[in-house]
Structures are given as C-alpha cells and as structure tokens.
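[audit] Reproducing an earlier prediction to check determinism. Same input, same settings, fresh worker. If the tokens differ from the archived copy the diff job will pick it up downstream; this log only records the rerun itself.
[audit] input (295 residues):
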Amino acid sequence: MKRTLSRLAGILLVGSLAVSCSKETIEPVAGPTATPQTADASATRDNNLALGNPSGAVADPAYYWNYLVTKSQYTMSYHRDRGTPNWVSWHLSSAWLGSTPRQDNFGPDNSLPSGWYRVTSTSYTGSGFDRGHNCPSADRTGSIADNTATFLMSNMIPQAPQNNQRTWAGLENYCRTLVDAGNELYIICGSYGKGGTGSNGYATTLDAGRVTVPARVWKVVVVIPNGTGDAARVTTSTRVIAINTPNDNSLTTTWGSYRTTVDAIEQATGYDLLSAVSASVQSVVEARVDNGPTS
C-alpha cells in the first residue's frame, strides 16, 4: 500500500510541475538594439506634438520661414534664413531616458530641403556663443540614435554661455527630476528677436550672416502624471512652467526668476501654444505664472 501511495504521489508531483511549467512566461533576452527598461513601467514615448503645432508649421519648402521638421525624437518649426528653429517641441518621460552617453557629434541636418544652407558644427566657432540645444542631449539618452539627433545643428541656437550653462541647464535638470517623480512632460522651447550678448560681446548674426543670434529664449513645460490621452488630461490645475530670458551672459543661476505666462510668450511670438488643449483650460493655465518649486 505504501509503495502504491508513493508512486501516486510521484505521478501527481510530475503533473503539477508540468502544469506549472506550461504557465511560465519566458522573457526574451534583450539584444543590443532593445529599448532599455524604464524607471516607470507606465511611462511611454508619446507624440512630440500632442499639445499642438504652435505656428501651424508646414512640411513644404515654400514655407521656408515656418518649415515643419518631424523626427522621432522631436518636432520643430525651422527658419531657413535664420539658420535656427523657431521652436522645438518634445515629449519627456522615463521611457526616453537610458544610459547612452553624450555623443557630442554636432553636425548638419541633411534632412533639410535640397539647396538650403545647412549650418555646420563650426558655424559658431570663435563667436562667443554656445551651440545651445533646444531639445537637450540629456533628454534623449535611450539610444545612440536618439542622442545623436539632439546634436543636429537644426536643433541649435547661438546661446550666451551663462544663459545656456547655468540658467537653462538648471531648468533642464529640474525637468528630469519631475520625470523621476513619475511625471511626463511636454516641452516647447523657442527663440525670437535679433541680437544677443555672448562672451565676446554683442552680435546679431554668425557664419557670414547665415545664422541669426536671437534676442530672447523661451520655454514652456506642461507637467502631468504618466498616463494616456495626454492633451485631454491637462486641466486648470495642471502645472505649466513658462520662462522667457534675454540671450546674454548676465543671467542669474535661478531660472525661476524668469518665469512668465504662456500668454506673454504668445503675444511676443504670435504662436498659439497648447492649441490641442481645451480653450477653457488654456484660458486659465496660460494666464498663470508658475510659483512651484525650482529644485
């Protein structure tokens, strides 16, 4: 009898193991091109233009002053005759972040229309202005291709070194702390006007007049928890950070000193920011100056 029970127990044990193995999910081994795991499993890479096209940019070379450039890493309106973007819009969540190091491979954007002047990595050399990213390198570290895209010269403006390396760097770093806290951001960065002051003094253009030095640099950051249906989730209580700075070397390190309203930036540029958000929500959040933390 004991022998029979022992054999029966063995059969049941084998059957149990077989059922268990049949339900086990085998995860594929990640290859060298696999997307890195994100800090937040709910984070995704979303449409960089989900909150609207601020200037109604068009992917037609005839609109050389408002030419739409769409890349997987960001979307922009490019101005051929200024040699800089009017604005660049991108989505930021932990799904975009990884361990890819800064590539520093500045280069021309060969996707621009044939016959257009393509700003090069040396166009700013000796000017006293930084090659200032609109979409930052550190916001696109998921792959070498993502990081490389941020070093295209179409993503750059001549930016005063103290403006770029202190004020703007501080805001960019703060944005990534918001991502670490479980948020996703929609960011629009742009510039306007003519003439800035770099480390060599005041200038209006670089590269034999082919690159315009902007007078002002601005940014709008919309902060929402990770989720879906993003434009519809922007409410009157959503935090919207807007700053507008002069393009010179006298800026303080505290980016919060330059906060303004989205309405004020729209008035200065003629753009319709956050146009995909409901009009009733826009009227509230665009008129408000952010007073939240800065670090």
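[audit] rerun output stored. Observation attached for the diff report: The helical segments are 2-23, 144-149, 161-180, 230-233, 262-269, 279-285.
[audit] end
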